[in-house]
């Protein structure tokens, strides 16, 4: 089985699923805090790659 990975960028960060609070459909402040933290790290040059979970369901 071949897995697909997604590289998070400032352009796709808002639309990509983050690996936290997977079971809730409600907005959660922790998810937005994680997105903000990641946005700051990406602007510093960090690279965040994740498994595309939609591909393995």
Can you put this structure into words, describing what you see?
The chain is of the alpha+beta class and 57 residues long. It is 26% helix and 14% strand. It has one helix and two strands. It has one helix at 29-43; strands spanning 5-8, 48-51. The chain has a two-stranded antiparallel ribbon. It is flat, with a radius of gyration of 12 Å. The two termini are 13 Å apart.
Looking at this protein, list some descriptive labels:
single chain; 57 residues; alpha+beta; two-stranded antiparallel sheet; 14% strand
Major sheet, described briefly? 2 strands, antiparallel
The end-to-end distance, rounded to whole angstroms, is 13 Å
* Strand order in the sheet with the most strands: 1-2
Topology as a string of helices (H) and strands (E): EHE
- SS elements, strand count: 2
3D shape: flat
How much is the average pLDDT?
82
Quick structural gist:
It is built from one helix and two strands, in the order βαβ.
């Amino acid at each position: 089985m071949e897995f697909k990975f997604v590289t998070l960028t400032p352009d796709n960060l808002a639309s990509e699923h983050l690996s936290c609070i997977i079971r809730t459909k409600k907005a959660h402040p922790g998810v937005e805090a994680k997105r903000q933290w990641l946005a700051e790290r990406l602007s510093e040059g960090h690279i965040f790659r994740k498994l595309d979970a939609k591909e393995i369901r």
